Amino acid sequence: MTKTITVLPGDGIGPEVTDAAVRVLKHIFDHSRTDVRFVEKRIGGAAIEADGTPLPQETIAQCRKSNAVLLGAVGGPKWAGMAAKMRPEQGLLGIRKALGLFANIRPARTFAPLIDASPLKASRVAGVDFVIVRELTGGLYFGKPSERRGPNHEQVVDTLAYSADEIERVVETAFQMAEKRRRKLTSVDKANVLESSRMWREIVNRVAKRHPDVAVTHALVDSTAMQLIACPAQFDVIVTENMFGDILSDEASMITGSLGMLPSASLRTDQLGLYEPVHGSAPDIAGRGVANPLATILSAAFLLRYSLDRAHEAGQIERAVDTVLARGYHTPDLKISGEALDTAGMTDQVITALDEAFTKEKGEMEA
Ligand code: NAD
Ligand code: IPM
Ligand code: MN
């Protein structure tokens, strides 16, 4: 049956980077003569403008009947002062929740050619390869909505709420991921202050009994933020609460040198997934055609691996990105020497590297 990928370009550089990733995916599918349908829908500020809501029902319905969703980014200064309901970000939170995508996988690894692009010393970032598993549909982001209270509306509440099941399923995902990697899991919390974190620890210890081959460490989020800079190579899999994971993953992007390099996959227990870069809509560079498309192209590789069972082609995209970087090509956000390309030029290079890989593979098969 024909597979369907729903594309949600969103705002700012969102459409620029999803265009790039769709070009790469179409190139892969053309090569293997696979029939895949792409359907575009609105989300975020673009949907507020056209439909009066950041997450139209039509978008949710289309995502639900797809095999995978590719998302750019949402948000921008135009909607910054709006109330929650009319904020683009609400569209993103809403689609994650509506699809039940509880596990957000955010890997950070060193790309050897970019080692000097990191503000950290090369000796610190060499060989870094870890994954943050961020809980995505609960915690501080989804607690009871806060309203301004009190006589002068100067009291406010945000709630960090979890049920044991919500914690257990994401922790289980992280253990399974650790088993396929270096079998080290760091569970990050604030158990010295928060009751929710103390329950989180208990659940991690309980799930750990089912995975005796994984070495578990509990760490506090403040000290983890420090350790990510001091010694990032120590980490393998990190599992943590929604907002802690949001903050730590932006911090982790600096190991690669740019937020424009970090892909992500948001998963649930079946194969439907949502794939998006970790970065936002970058209003400061939007519309100039210079955004780094690699985070979204690498997210498209995850889409192939996790939602379409195409691990081989996912690997081909990842190796093509490595090849392009090794050749010195980069966008202006990466502060390395050599000529910077624009979004389209960078995407052309990825496609060229893919073609070289296809030709090589064909030669090997014929030999
Ligand atoms: P941002 O990630 O959009 O940008 C931070 C900085 O990184 C900017 O200087 C930007 O130019 C740069 N940058 C980000 N992605 C880049 C890329 N691909 N290539 C080159 N440079 C890149 O974060 P922000 O400025 O704090 O937020 C802007 C808007 O995006 C806000 O409305 C925010 O809510 C939203 N946002 C959305 C998402 C998402 O949709 N997943 C994620 C984060 C932020
Ligand atoms: C991210 C973003 C979103 C988040 C915002 C835009 C709601 O920062 O995907 O990391 O906080 O989850
Ligand atoms: Mn974020």
UniProtKB/TrEMBL annotation:
GO terms for biological process: L-leucine biosynthetic process. It catalyses: (2R,3S)-3-isopropylmalate + NAD(+) = 4-methyl-2-oxopentanoate + CO2 + NADH. Residues 4-350 form the Isopropylmalate dehydrogenase-like domain. The record marks 141, 190 as: Important for catalysis. Its EC number is 1.1.1.85. Substrate binds at residues 96, 106, 134, 222. Its cofactor is Mg(2+); Mn(2+). It comes from the Bacteria. One of its GO terms (cellular component) is cytosol. PANTHER family: 3-ISOPROPYLMALATE DEHYDROGENASE. This is 3-isopropylmalate dehydrogenase. It comes from Sporolactobacillus sp. Y61.
